[in-house]
Write a structure and sequence with these properties.
Oligomer: single chain
Radius of gyration: 23 Å
Order of helices and strands: HHHHHHHHHHHHH
Number of strands: 0
Number of domains: 1
Shape: globular
Strand content: under 5%
Largest sheet: none
Length: 347
Amino acid sequence: MKMGLLLLVNVTLLAIGTCGGPMVMRLYFLHGGHRVWLSSWLETGGWPINFILLLVTYLNRRQKEGPAAKIVFMGGRLFIGSSVTGVLSGVDNYLYAYGVARLPISTSSLVAASHLTFVALFAFVLVKQKYTPYSINAVVLLTVATGVLALHTSTDRPEGESSKEYYKGFFMTVAAAVLFGFLLPFMELTYKKARQDVTYTLVLEFQLVMSFVATLVCSIGMIVNNDFKAIPREARDFGLGETMYYVVLVSSAIVWQCCFLGSIGVTFVGSSLLSAIIITVVLQVTEILGVVLYKEKFTAEKGVSLFLALWGFVSYFYGEQKHSKEKSEIQAPEKDMPLPITVTTPS
């Protein structure tokens, strides 16, 4: 019951971040924002939020265990794993932000959804993920759904943007999907290889270190690109006003942190494949919001992609439910089997 509630909370965080993060980021670029490194920095710049969550978990432990409750720290393996993940996440942040800057959100979301294919591949190699016919069907459908976008992609190219920049953004988004597809199974592998019991508290510490390192990587990019100096000037020229500029930046940092917290939480409770499937489905919602709120084109290719993605989502969870039911039916007779009765006859 406790793990089920934890899964529900993290799925909610993942949905909020996956849907809200790209929307707020695209809003920044639509109204005069130009700094890709700044946008990538914001993807993990909300890392101090983790201190609040860690304090909550500590106070909860202290309430149960009393003054004897101690602060739990991750071991060397988890620290190294989180640091490596942080460096790669910093690079992935930039690749993704570059794509969002060049592509309509309805297109970039569907392209980013291709990460599921790479998660499936790396999860099989790294953590020996087991697949059922339903999960394989889901991966195939969701992969095809993304591949459909390769047909006539340039038809939704934003006005005033060159074909070169558009296709560069497209392939940068694909590269981000490949890297993210590696990161989720890598985190799951790190949990399994840690020489200590991995609790949710340690997962939060993992997220804290990962986000801090990723933010540090993006900070270097911002310094080189003079982004820190450009923020006040860009705020004054922002299409929605100077105050809204900073609201957009802060909101972006918060919702993206929800995304990362949710993804590592679902990976911890469930698996990297489950996290990838939830992200893929929520990205379809992001696509629809991009069409409705930002007046983007809803082409036939996007419609087919959305249909296949939803079909894959239903297939996966139907298969999981059926597998769980069959497993419980097999175990039930064993639990209900009466104990053997020994009858002693007088000699």
